[in-house]
Amino acid sequence: MSAELNGPKGTVFKTDIGYFCLDTEDRVVSWEVINYGAYGMREIELARSLMDEGARVLVVGAHIGTAAIPLSRCCRDLVAVEANPRTFEMLRLNVLMNERRNVTAVHAAANHENGNIEFLMNWRNSGGSKRMPKIRDPNYFDDNPKIETVPARRLDDILDGVFDLVFMDIEGSEYFAFVGMQRILAGARTLIVEFLPHHLERVAGITVEDFVAPLAPHFDSLAIPTMDRIVARDEFTRALQALYERQQGDTAIIFRKRG
User: Fold this and answer.
1) Are 57 and 75 contacting, i.e. CB atoms less than 8 angstroms apart?
2) CATH 3.40.640.10 fits 39-256, yes or no
3) pLDDT tens-digit profile of 79-110?
């Protein structure tokens, strides 16, 4: 559970995962941290089980740090990338409050090319903020989000070195991120990423085959917890297509290399 303290921005809470500056208008991530002390612990524990203290970790879509900060306590160093300028400021503050000296925060939207993109800054569910979708589904605009222009970057161009684990939650921008981080994916042992059919169709405007294409050269197996299946590379597309056709998502599918 959480205890409220006075803070310079938003409201600061002492939680089960550290000190966090939270937006009390956010009805998803902040609400859960305030009421339950943490957010996304299933995915955090999964990531912890696939890394060790010597690991270098990349979190893409770090939001306010509810995954990045706990994970940083279990690895050598961690880079946290966040596109939303509002939540990025809270991420930086939360990193400082928790004295996470092994965390580097980067403000950018992971993309296939360098430039700028339009970005929806939702307030009721700030974790659902996303690039301007290809199809303007009313569900993405139901809280009248502010639209900002944010820097978009190929992660291969702005990040150095090898990451053992990549943890990604970027609300439909996954394909674009994959294309712009082929060097990083080539060096990574594990990728944990969300798979939501409506993000492929309405945000990115891609197929399952498109989603898999930038990943297949780099990973040997795929675990899909909602299907209780582990499949080899030649089954990646078929297995995810089955999820897509049922309009069934999974918050953490796991691509891995052998060994």
Assistant:
1) yes
2) no
3) 999 999 999 999 999 999 999 999 999 999 99
